[in-house]
Structures are given as C-alpha cells and as structure tokens.
Amino acid sequence: MTIIQNRTSGMPRNIQNAVNIVFNGSPQEVEAYVPDLIRSVLDSAEACRIAAEQAERSFEGLTGLAQEMVLACTNRVSWYLILLIKVLNGISDR
C-alpha cells in the first residue's frame, strides 16, 4: 500500500504540468516535455496496478487462513461439546 501511496503522490503534479504545457507552452515544449510527463503517469499507474494485485493476493491469502482458523476452532468446539455430552450422559447414568 505504501508503494501505491508513494507512486500516486506525484501524479497530480505531473498531470497538471502536462496540461499547463499543452495550453500555455510552445509546440516545441509540448513535444519535448509532455510525452515524458505522460510516460511518468503511465509508469506510476502500472506500478500501482501491480502493487494492488499483490495486495489483493495477500489479502486473499489472509482471508483463506482466517477461514481455516474458524473451521478448525469450530471443529474443536464441536469435539469438546461431544465429549461434554458423553461425560454428562455418563454421570446421569450412575
């Protein structure tokens, strides 16, 4: 998530600079600077996409682990309940 925050922090400035150059710059300035600014924004967007996919995979892994833990705890509680019922039935039979 830090990668996304770091990469997106410069995007508004780059976009604003590109727009300013397009509207206020000479054709030579547009040709010289705008492609690099756009490339920078696209590179940042791609890095953010990759980081987001990695974060999503990590989150899915954590949710899977949490589901396994809930299942294991539920099974363990069920086992103890069955044991308790058997003990209580054994006590009541006496």
Structural summary, described in words:
It is a single chain. With 94 residues, the chain is mainly alpha-helical. The chain has one domain. The protein is 95% helix and 0% strand. The chain has three helices and no strands. The protein has helices spanning 2-9, 11-24, 27-93. Helix 2 runs antiparallel to helix 3. The N and C termini lie far apart (63 Å).
Q: Can you give the helix content as a percent range?
A: over 70%
How many E-type strands?
0
Low-confidence stretches: none
Largest sheet: none
Main structural class: mainly alpha
Element pattern in H and E:
HHH
User: How many structural domains can be distinguished in the coordinates?
Assistant: 1
Residues in β-strands, percent: under 5%
Shape category:
rod-shaped
Indicate the radius of gyration in whole angstroms: 29 Å
Count the DSSP helices.
Answer: 3
**Mean pLDDT metric:** 88
Span between N and C termini?
Answer: 63 Å
Top keywords for this entry?
94 residues; 0% strand
Summary of the model, kept short:
The chain has 94 residues and is an all-alpha fold. It is built from 3 helices and no strands.
Task: Summarize the helices and strands and which ones pair or pack.
Layout: H1 2-9, H2 11-24, H3 27-93
Helix pairs in contact: 1-3, 2-3
